[in-house]
Predict the 3D structure of the following.
Amino acid sequence: EDKHLTLKDIVEPIEDKAEFNITDRMYAKKEGTLSYKKAWSSVKTLEQKSKTLTCSQSIANSGATNIKYPDGQFYKPTAIESERLQTLPDNYTKYGILDGEQKEISYTQRVKCVGNGWTVKVIEYLFKGLK
């Protein structure tokens, strides 16, 4: 069932997203290039739904959702926003275990993990019918 959620329902406060601002990168792309086409065709506003997440979501010209805010600025999704899109708890991918020790996972690897995963609520729905 469509929950009618849009990007405005999952984004973090803009003041927490300065490092995810890709406005300059968006405008620096040369028209007619594949990079330009992918980046600009992937723009969504806060009133729209996200594109499907992929493991290359962290690259602003990969076909990832580039979020346009009302002030005209563009942002790539944060790791937490990516987790929310897959209905995971916030910071679900923040830590991992390496050589028996808990380590913080980089943004790029977190987004790859989420993009390679399944949407939790969809799987939950599918499994309800199994006994």
Notes: DSSP finds five helices and five strands in the chain. The mean pLDDT is 89. Residues 107-115 form the longest helix (9 residues). The first strand starts at residue 43 and ends at 45.
